Amino acid sequence: MIYKFKNHTPVVHETSFVHPLAAVTGNVIIGKDCYIGPGAAIRGDWGEIILEDGVNVQENCTVHMFPGKSITLKKGAHVGHGAIIHGANLGENCLVGMNSVIMDDAEIGDECIIGALAFVKAETKIPKRSLVVGNPGKIIKQVSDEMIAWKTAGTRLYQQLPTDCHESLKEVQPLREIPDNRPEQENFYKTLKEFKGKK
């Protein structure tokens, strides 16, 4: 669901996928290979929101800000299910965990990981490669090379997902019973523990 608001019509690159149950409104620019999940709201009614290439904003996330602001989610930023980004800027290849809240004028550095359920207060500056957890969010350590490699691999799945959705996502009527030839789901993801163990 893409909405013009006043004089602003969202710009969405053709390689990106916005789920029909998401809402993108007004002054929003979405780059290449971005995924916007169902229930996500990206509301550029009061200010500009830029998603650079390869960003994903997953199910039930909200991206918004106070009037007159402009925010950027930089290349490869990964916003987990249910997170809220309100007037904050996200650095390249960072991860915002599920149900986290990042408040106004916060700056999340490149390759940071914000843990699930974290609360990052307004105007907080998080340096590059920081691991942040808790409420209020606190830096507990630096993100290791292994952790960022695992995060990057996970984000690549979301960067492939727009193509998969364009090619295969279709509204259908449900089956009424399980077919004999039901396909098996692919297993292409490793937890951080499994990712470390493969080396």
What does this molecule look like?
The chain has 199 residues and is an alpha/beta fold. It has helices at 145-168, 192-197, and strands spanning 2-3, 11-12, 17-18, 23-30, 35-36, 41-51, 56-57, 62-64, 70-73, 78-79, 84-86, 89-90, 95-96, 101-102, 107-108, 113-114, 119-120, 125-126, 130-133, 138-142. Strands 1, 2, 4, 6, 8, 9, 11, 14 and 17 form a nine-stranded parallel beta sheet that branches. A hairpin with a 4-residue loop joins strand 19 and strand 20 (138-142). 35% of the residues are buried.
What topology does this entry show?
Layout: E1 2-3, E2 11-12, E3 17-18, E4 23-30, E5 35-36, E6 41-51, E7 56-57, E8 62-64, E9 70-73, E10 78-79, E11 84-86, E12 89-90, E13 95-96, E14 101-102, E15 107-108, E16 113-114, E17 119-120, E18 125-126, E19 130-133, E20 138-142, H1 145-168, H2 192-197
Parallel strand pairs: 1-4, 2-4, 3-5, 4-6, 5-7, 6-8, 6-9, 7-10, 8-11, 10-13, 11-14, 12-15, 13-16, 14-17, 15-18, 16-19
Antiparallel strand pairs: 19-20
Protein name: Phenylacetic acid degradation protein PaaY
Pfam families: Hexapep (PF00132)
Organism: Psychroflexus lacisalsi
